[in-house]
Please model this.
Amino acid sequence: MKLLILVLQVALVGSLTVSSGFLGDNITLASGAPPSWNLTSIEWSIFSNNTWIATYRGKRKNTERVDRYKGRLSLNIISGDLTIRNLTPEDAMEYTVDLINTQRENKGGKTKLIVKQRLPKPTIETFPCESVKGGGFQLFLLCSSTDKSVDLSWSKTTNATVFNSLNADVASTAVKVFLSTKQNHVKFTCTSSKNSETASSDVTPSCDDNEPEPTPQHHSTHRKNYIAITFFVGLLVGVLVMTVLYFQKGETNNILAG
Model:
């Protein structure tokens, strides 16, 4: 007798389906009712004690049964589908639906809801421009993600810029950019991918026209100044050392003479 009741319960509940949604989004759980059915009773419940969260009986609909779901549920009395708005982590659980049509036929089902967090957008860091011998400029871009298990890739809007990319570590990737002129603005996109989800960030690097360009003459002047300062400091230190030694020697001679 117990075995027969168990078999009937399994037949009524049916197979378990799986649905997934993102935090803050809406999701609709399908009841599985045949399109030809004219539903007279719909009961959506949670937990093992069948806590009702949305019901339709005697042509009366109630979606305000449980505080945590108040204002977030919509029940379609034609299809029996249940919509949950503004998903939260606590919504991730199994939902049970029980249906009855005008012919007194019963049907049930279970849906396991998985609530996921959206993939965070990657962060792009731009490093200062450097002039290149023969003309043009180069700079580095670094793309990183807080999610350590994503794949990062680069793309650009035009082939006017030549670049090579390399992976700095498992959660970041760098790209070397060459710009023929300071006005050569090219948009670069870094995309992070995980399973079937993607997220991307854009940047349009350029060199600042107000930034003085380093030239061989500037480098030569800086080098000469550095050498002169180094020589002067060394000379000053040498004079101070010789002066200290001279006075120490004089004091020693006075002591011996006394």
Remarks:
- The domain at 13-116 is CATH 2.60.40.10 (Immunoglobulin-like).
- The longest strand covers residues 106-116.
- Confidence is low (pLDDT under 50) at residues 1-12, 209-233.
- The longest helix spans residues 216-257.
